[in-house]
Every structure is written in structure tokens, then in C-alpha cells.
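Example for tutorial group B:
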């Protein structure tokens, strides 16, 4: 009887130890790392470009998803004219308006790879082209490299 009690006691201790080891070994699994000393992501500072009485925020999101911010200063009335004047965009003018082919030196060639520059106003795709969009205080304009 003493042998059976001793075996049962040994088995219970072994099971308890295995349970404790399993629980402590897995307690941090899936938990996010503790970053108490990390700082928040650094805000992208806008680069001032151009000269003029009016300034507006302009962003470029390139083919790698990197965003560059500008504060465009101009005396032009439309976003397209202002961006052309400071050299941030290049393109061709047609009966349909300005077809932007290059932004900040990066070319988007729809015929070659299905890429184009999508024009946004306040984070929404614009209904008109940049050359038809008047500069308005409080609005942010952007060109986003997009693949069809």
C-alpha cells in the first residue's frame, strides 16, 4: 500500500511540475513586446518649395509607398499650374487637360507597366485633374503612384 501511495504521489508531483513549466513557458507567447522606452513614429516634416502669397500642403506617395510632404508656395490659381511652376510634376497637355507623367522625378508609364499618377484632394481621388483644381485653403493635395 505504501508503494502505491508513493507512486501516486510521485505521478501527481510530476504532473504538477509539467503543468507549471508549461504555463510559465507559454505565458508570453503571442503577447506584444514591451516597448516602454520607444517613442512614437516621427512626423514627416514638409519641405518648403516655391515662392508666392499662397501656400498649400502637397504629398507624393511613390512606387514604394514612401510619402514626401511639401508646402508649396505660389501665386498660381490651380494646383497643376503651381506644381508645374515649382517643377514637382511634368506631363503633357491635351484637349483633356494636363496628363501628369512624372512627379518628383518618378515617371509612371501606363503603356509600359500600367502605372499612373492618381490625383487626390483631402485623401479622396479627385473628380477633376490638377490643372482644373483651384487651390483652396485647408485642403491637402496629393499624387499617388498607382498600378492598374
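The residue assignment follows.
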Amino acid at each position: 500500500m505504501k508503494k502505491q501511495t508513493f507512486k501516486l504521489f510521485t505521478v501527481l508531483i510530476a504532473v504538477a511540475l509539467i503543468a507549471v513549466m508549461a504555463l510559465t513557458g507559454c505565458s508570453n507567447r503571442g503577447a506584444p513586446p514591451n516597448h516602454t522606452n520607444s517613442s512614437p513614429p516621427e512626423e514627416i516634416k514638409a519641405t518648403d518649395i516655391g515662392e508666392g502669397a499662397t501656400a498649400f500642403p502637397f504629398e507624393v506617395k511613390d512606387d514604394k509607398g514612401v510619402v514626401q510632404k511639401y508646402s508649396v508656395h505660389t501665386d498660381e490659381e490651380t494646383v497643376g499650374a503651381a506644381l508645374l511652376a515649382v517643377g514637382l510634376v511634368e506631363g503633357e497637355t491635351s484637349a483633356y487637360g494636363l496628363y501628369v507623367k512624372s512627379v518628383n522625378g518618378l515617371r509612371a508609364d501606363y503603356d509600359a507597366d500600367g502605372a499612373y499618377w492618381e490625383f487626390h484632394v483631402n485623401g479622396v481621388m479627385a473628380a477633376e485633374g490638377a490643372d482644373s483644381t483651384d487651390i483652396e485653403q485647408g485642403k491637402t493635395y496629393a499624387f499617388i503612384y498607382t498600378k492598374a
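The chain has a mean pLDDT of 83. Compare this with the pattern of hydrophobic and polar residues in the output above.
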